[in-house]
Amino acid sequence: MIEIEGITKRYDATAVVDDVSMVIEPRTIAVIVGTSGSGKTTLLRMINRLVEPTAGVIKLDGADNRSLPGYELRRSIGYAIQGHGLFPHRTVAQNIATVPVLLGWDKARIKARVDELMTLYQLDPEAFGPRYPHELSGGQQQRVGVARALAAEPNVLLMDEPFGALDPIIRTKAQEDLLTIQKRFGTTIILVTHDMEEAVHMGDKIAVMDAGKLVQYAKPAEILAKPASAFVETLVGASERPFRLLSLGRVRDAVEKGTAEGEAIPGDASQRDALAELLWSGRPALPVRDADGKPLGRVTLDGLVKRSARPA
Amino acid sequence: MRGAPERLTGEGVPIRFDKLGVVIAVIAAYAAFAAPFATFRANRIVPGQARSMLEALPAATGPLLLAIVVVAALVALFKTPLLLRLAASAAALAALALLIGVAGTFLTPTGNTFARISPASGFWILIFAFTLLLADVLTRLELSPWARVGVLVVASAAVALLLISGSWNDLSILKEYANRADSFWAEGSKHVTLALGSLLAAVIIGLPLGILCHRVERLRASVLNVLNIIQTIPSIALFGLLIAPLGWVATHVPAAAALGIRGIGTAPAFVALFLYSLLPVVANTVVGLAGVPRAANDAARGMGMTDRQRLFGVEFPLAFPVILTGIRIVLVQNIGLATIAALIGGGGFGVFVFQGVGQTAMDLVLLGAVPTVALAFAAAIILDAVIEMTATRRREASPA
Amino acid sequence: MKAWLPALLRLALVVLLVAFLTNPGWFEPLLKPLTENNAPVIYNQGSLLTLTLLHLRIVLIATMAATIVAVALAILVTRPAGAEFLPLSRSLVNIGQTFPPVAVLALAVPAVGFGEKPTLIALFLYGLLPIFENALTGLTTLPANVMEAARGAGMTGWQRLVKVELPLSAPIILGGIRLSVVIGLATATIGSTVAAKTLGEVIIAGLLSNNLAFILQGGLIVAALAVLIYDGLSAVERYTARRMGRETA
């Protein structure tokens, strides 16, 4: 659990982060969204003390994060940044092993961990381990960057626009990979982004920041349904709102009784995808099947339209 | 707890040391109290005797200079306003410059023309320390190009005034000058002619060569490689290597000999300096032209400019600051290298340096070295200012 | 140009240089036409090989000292504690470069007398500048996100310097060392005017006795050494740059 209590960072007279308090539950993903200059990156960097706060306290599992020297604290927290920041003079394997080496793990344990992470990220340890970062594609570099952040099995992972430099297709894949790995390791993740789409997709909770202040901190559905201010509303995007709301729900939760003609949609797909398919194929309803192909019922255009309306 | 109250260190204003100031104060203290201020020699080649600051200056002026140095060092030591530091360093340098002349007159026995008084290590170290302070202030003030040239002009005028007023006339370096005033100016003009003339020739040949290299990619690598190899060859070696071919030309082509081309003398020095100058000019022309934004070139082509119009209307103006940087490198380098021309009879300030080395007369070495350094320094400041001016004008013109 | 041609030319140059230094007599007929009045053809006041080795030794010692001091200084002014000196050190480098090597050489003589010492001092001082300047460039132009990652991974200041900053700056620092060595080879040649035992002696002797053969052999040996060393160091630099993932222009 991460408790941020009244944290403030001032440079000269201007408060970049102004009296922010929030609690991040263990094994969840909190996404901090905001425009550039909103203080979201500074807030993130105060958690692993790359920036020292002017006032306030941050506690990790109850312990003040100032109870250790900064560098020791940072070894216990994963950190992944935009453009990956891989060390160009070290091989992929050496890059991933950075923090375990700093912590003095023995060789066998480091090798095992590096191999595990590379396999997890679909990079063959034999083929990719000895390569240098500039020999990899952008998507591979990004994966190595996240693998390096996870190497020392941190409980907390901080990510600063980790997918910012990726093209849309690779970005979607990277987001899915991260969700899978978060479930597997149960890591608490705090992710900074300026992309509301990404925030709604990834976050268990979303924190919206504007001019150094925390404007709203709530579940995605609530942010979409009840934006706390005009600023949040703009950020959500009035024209995108219904679709984002639908993207939060699974088709299986919108299933009605009955049957429909044509190709079926899996129950795990998002309701947004179902709506898109309905509109595109011009059908009033789609059959829904679960992963084994068993029919679950149907999803209708009318039903989805009702679901996309502003909740009461 | 927000807005924690400012913690006060003791009462009143906290005293803070300036890190560079500590270094300067230590150097200045050593130079003022432990090192000799001037050297007295009975004639120009015997070893000298050291004189401390108080011994070298008449009654009141010794303590006065000491006081000025101590105050200026204290100003440097603590964190003080920039303008105060500027005033302190300028005052200390001016006092040192004036009083070393006074020391010269004071220490020279009346009527003795053999005695030589020269500034000693203490003086030079003090000059170094306060120049360091001045340089730091000027760097931190981030002066505009015009202001930097202004400072150079003021400093040169001050030195010229001291020279003309004759207050340094009793110093050994000026006694050496008095003995060879005519040859000093003759060698000086040779030095400048060599440095500037070879630069001019390099620009006349190098610019078109650079443009050609930019247009013809196949040529680029080989031309730059050859010029690179020439730059690598040490100057004496290159001077030496040119003696043979130029000597051959002089004996076999009468017209060349009539033009003054010979194996030894100005010709090989000129050719060597010219060859050294080519690389920076050609390379910077190529880099400058390559740096012209593609969009600008495409736009020019799209508007129907011919290659020639594009070169003079778009590419050349945009590449100009980079080409100018090459010219700056060449000029500063040539002013320094021209000293070596003296070894092969090419003249220049190097004549005094090598004569001085040969006679172990350091004042003579200084007579050659000081104007060389001054020229190179002035050239660097002026050209840096010009480069900055052309570069900013272009940046303002094209919003980027 | 074929790829193997430069390598072949370099190899030929090495072979020629070694042959000339070990058996200068073989080349006597070639240089003979350049002398007059039965003057000696091959330098006879010392072995060319010894002079070459002494020449290289001076450059080596001075460059090593300059490298240690210059890199240490560059590290100092790029740490938070020395940051105050950074702007000044840049100005000093700029000013320092306007001092011609000959002047530095000549001005060192009153302080330490004639011989190898003033040459060593001049080489050392003049060698500092390019190495310092390049080390400064290398240490101040490190990719920001790599440095951020190093800090974020929990490296201490020392670990960042040794494991990230210095390795990444190595190619640029090597470039400075290469410039410094080339300038050093040239300055060491002039060093013979203050009685240092270097190859300059051969050229100066030739100039004094009007012996073209001396001038030519001295000049050629120095030039060949400079070109070969420059070339070799460039190759090392390119290799390190590739290794560090920093492409040089």
Automatic annotation (TrEMBL), chain A:
<comment type="similarity">
    <text>Belongs to the ABC transporter superfamily.</text>
</comment>
<dbReference type="Pfam" id="PF00005">
    <property type="entry name" value="ABC_tran"/>
</dbReference>
<keyword id="KW-0547">Nucleotide-binding</keyword>
<feature type="domain" description="ABC transporter">
    <location>
        <begin position="2"/>
        <end position="236"/>
    </location>
</feature>
<keyword id="KW-0813">Transport</keyword>
<dbReference type="InterPro" id="IPR046342">
    <property type="entry name" value="CBS_dom_sf"/>
</dbReference>
<dbReference type="InterPro" id="IPR003439">
    <property type="entry name" value="ABC_transporter-like_ATP-bd"/>
</dbReference>
<keyword id="KW-0067">ATP-binding</keyword>
<dbReference type="InterPro" id="IPR017871">
    <property type="entry name" value="ABC_transporter-like_CS"/>
</dbReference>
<dbReference type="GO" id="GO:0005524">
    <property type="term" value="F:ATP binding"/>
</dbReference>
<dbReference type="InterPro" id="IPR027417">
    <property type="entry name" value="P-loop_NTPase"/>
</dbReference>
<dbReference type="GO" id="GO:0016887">
    <property type="term" value="F:ATP hydrolysis activity"/>
</dbReference>
<dbReference type="InterPro" id="IPR003593">
    <property type="entry name" value="AAA+_ATPase"/>
</dbReference>
<protein>
    <submittedName>
        <fullName>Osmoprotectant transport system ATP-binding protein</fullName>
    </submittedName>
</protein>
<dbReference type="GO" id="GO:0015697">
    <property type="term" value="P:quaternary ammonium group transport"/>
</dbReference>
Automatic annotation (TrEMBL), chain B:
<keyword id="KW-0813">Transport</keyword>
<keyword id="KW-1133">Transmembrane helix</keyword>
<dbReference type="InterPro" id="IPR051204">
    <property type="entry name" value="ABC_transp_perm/SBD"/>
</dbReference>
<feature type="transmembrane region" description="Helical">
    <location>
        <begin position="90"/>
        <end position="109"/>
    </location>
</feature>
<feature type="transmembrane region" description="Helical">
    <location>
        <begin position="121"/>
        <end position="139"/>
    </location>
</feature>
<feature type="transmembrane region" description="Helical">
    <location>
        <begin position="337"/>
        <end position="357"/>
    </location>
</feature>
<keyword id="KW-0812">Transmembrane</keyword>
<dbReference type="GO" id="GO:0005886">
    <property type="term" value="C:plasma membrane"/>
</dbReference>
<feature type="transmembrane region" description="Helical">
    <location>
        <begin position="192"/>
        <end position="214"/>
    </location>
</feature>
<comment type="similarity">
    <text>Belongs to the binding-protein-dependent transport system permease family.</text>
</comment>
<keyword id="KW-0472">Membrane</keyword>
<dbReference type="GO" id="GO:0031460">
    <property type="term" value="P:glycine betaine transport"/>
</dbReference>
<feature type="transmembrane region" description="Helical">
    <location>
        <begin position="146"/>
        <end position="168"/>
    </location>
</feature>
<protein>
    <submittedName>
        <fullName>Osmoprotectant transport system permease protein</fullName>
    </submittedName>
</protein>
<feature type="transmembrane region" description="Helical">
    <location>
        <begin position="311"/>
        <end position="331"/>
    </location>
</feature>
UniProtKB/TrEMBL annotation, chain C:
<dbReference type="InterPro" id="IPR051204">
    <property type="entry name" value="ABC_transp_perm/SBD"/>
</dbReference>
<protein>
    <submittedName>
        <fullName>Osmoprotectant transport system permease protein</fullName>
    </submittedName>
</protein>
<comment type="similarity">
    <text>Belongs to the binding-protein-dependent transport system permease family.</text>
</comment>
<keyword id="KW-0813">Transport</keyword>
<dbReference type="Pfam" id="PF00528">
    <property type="entry name" value="BPD_transp_1"/>
</dbReference>
<keyword id="KW-1133">Transmembrane helix</keyword>
<feature type="transmembrane region" description="Helical">
    <location>
        <begin position="168"/>
        <end position="192"/>
    </location>
</feature>
<dbReference type="InterPro" id="IPR000515">
    <property type="entry name" value="MetI-like"/>
</dbReference>
<feature type="domain" description="ABC transmembrane type-1">
    <location>
        <begin position="52"/>
        <end position="233"/>
    </location>
</feature>
<feature type="transmembrane region" description="Helical">
    <location>
        <begin position="121"/>
        <end position="147"/>
    </location>
</feature>
<feature type="transmembrane region" description="Helical">
    <location>
        <begin position="212"/>
        <end position="236"/>
    </location>
</feature>
<dbReference type="GO" id="GO:0055085">
    <property type="term" value="P:transmembrane transport"/>
</dbReference>
<dbReference type="InterPro" id="IPR035906">
    <property type="entry name" value="MetI-like_sf"/>
</dbReference>
<keyword id="KW-0472">Membrane</keyword>
<keyword id="KW-0812">Transmembrane</keyword>
